[in-house]
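Example record for the data management plan.
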Amino acid sequence: MRMVRSGQWEADVLVSQMSRDVLHWLPAPADGIMHLSADKTRKDKCGRKHPLGLGTRESAHAPPCFGFAMVLLIASGNRYRMPIAMAVMDPKCKGHQNMLFRHMLETVALPSWVRQVIVTADAGLAANKTFKVIQGKGWTYVIAMARSRKFTDGRYVSDLVRHLPKSCSKRRAIHKPDGRRCDYWVLQKRATLHNLGDVT
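Corresponding structural encoding:
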């Protein structure tokens, strides 16, 4: 950490090189599938002089906090989960998290055993340019869509998901590592989104 803080090492380069070496030695999954998930996290800071810091809050009821945000690209498969790329967001640059995410997808170095890649992310990273990068690499994706997106018939996604009764969904049960059960209510529907095509 002293070398990183003094500027002699770059944290993102260090993480990518270390993760590349670790992935090379980890046992490959039998199905050859690697999951790449993107997530945004926040590092809290005490002072107010950080050049990339911003004041924010998690929700309307949460207290305000100060820190800087980072985008992480996490590889998972065969019971392991590890970050392989990271970058600090600039709050003054509009759409910077999507730019960082696309750069990570374009420059990621995958092991030779990878036969299929599945990218997962939340709605904040669902930009049209990002979908083009993923499709250009021949990967598949499971990404949440913003409620402001339109279907080809002119309706918004919010029109579909706002007034759904629980009876329309099916219950899916999963079990956590400690044995506890967790239920999810899932509705599956096929539709066609504007500028994106057929989705489920």
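Summary line stored alongside the record: Helices lie at 2-5, 11-25, 96-107, 128-136, 157-161.
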